Structures are given as structure tokens and as C-alpha cells.
Amino acid sequence: MKIQLWSIGKQHEKYIQQGVEDFTSRINKYFSTDWKIIPSPKNAASLNDTLTKKLEAEITLSLLNKDDYLVLLDERGAQINSVQLAEFIQHQANTSTKNIIFLIGGAFGCDDSLFKRANKIWSLSQLVFPHMLVRLILSEQLYRACTILRNEKYHHS
């Protein structure tokens, strides 16, 4: 199984990049993992929020394969703990999921078309975090889930 971490918006900020790269390389010891940063439409600043989300969704949907398992991160999604995340990842691996994509939406959230396409909607928290921090938290939690699956000492329950 391959884990893909997608984010709509700008490249990683330098203050986040090192942590994201570190956790991503750690995850790669368990599952092939990479990041895809999907740029916002070039004229997004001159568009309203609804149109921006629609255009971002069109770009994102065009990049997805029909068999990709899409996990959309949204503060209104289901909340799970780290052990449940590990169980979810193990279940996807056991059911022969080829690609699992964790998607962090754009600055204004995601268009309804992405919610309809998503296989799962997951909330890291009811709090709203800057996208750069979500990237770091997501990569850390995925690494934590991998260590839980292997009974390694990183996670203390």
C-alpha cells in the first residue's frame, strides 16, 4: 500500500518542512509515502471562496484514480484516536488498498464534490489549524500509527 499526503495550497514553509520531511522519511520505513502539493488556481485571489473551492476540487479530482481511497481532512469529520488510526491503516493494507490519499483542503475548505468523492472524512480536531501545522500533525500521527502497528516504543498509551 502507498500512502500519499496531498495538500492544496503553498509549498511547505521552512519552519514546518524539516519536521514534515523527518516524519515522512520515518513513515517510508513502513509504507511508501510521498507528498503532493496541489497549487491553488493562479487567479484565486480574485475569485470568491466558492469558485476557488470548485476549481481546487476540479484539479484534485482530475489527479485521483478511481481506485484511490480518499481520506478528506475536515474539522467536521469523525474524530479517532491514534490506535484507531493504526487499525484503520492496517485494515486498508489488509483489504489490498493500493493508494490511500490523505487530503488537506485549501484555505477555504473543500467543495462538496470532494466530500462526495471521499471514502472517509476525518477530523484531527474540532479546532481549526493552519494548513502547514496540519501537514506536520498528519505526518506525525501517521508515523505514530505505524509504530503502534509494530509495537514500537514511540507511542505511550
Description:
With about 160 residues, this protein is α/β, with parallel strands linked by helices. It has one domain: SPOUT methyltransferase, trefoil knot domain (Alpha/beta knot, 3-Layer(aba) Sandwich), CATH 3.40.1280.10. Helices cover about 45% and strands about 20% of the residues. It has five helices and five strands. Strands 2-1-4-3-5 form a five-stranded parallel β-sheet. Helix 3 links the parallel strand 3 and strand 4. Helix 1 packs parallel to helix 5 and helix 3 crosses helix 5. The longest helix has 19 residues. The chain is globular and about 50 Å long.
Present the secondary structure layout.
Layout: E1 2-8, H1 14-27, E2 32-38, H2 49-63, E3 69-79, H3 82-94, E4 99-104, H4 112-117, E5 120-123, H5 131-149
Parallel strand pairs: 1-2, 1-4, 3-4, 3-5
Helix content: 40-55%
Number of helices: 5
Count of beta strands: 5
**What fraction strand?**
15-25%
Order of helices and strands: EHEHEHEHEH
CATH domain topology: Alpha/beta knot
Radius of gyration: 15 Å
Based on helices, strands and strand pairing, what is the structural class? alpha/beta
CATH superfamily: SPOUT methyltransferase, trefoil knot domain
The strand line-up of the biggest sheet is 2-1-4-3-5
Question: What is the CATH class designation?
Answer: Alpha Beta
**Ends: how far apart?**
26 Å
Which regions have little confidence, pLDDT < 50, spanning 5+ residues? none
Query: What is the mean predicted local confidence, pLDDT?
Result: 93
Largest sheet: 5 strands, parallel
Query: Number of domains in the coordinates?
Result: 1
CATH architecture label name:
3-Layer(aba) Sandwich
Shape: globular
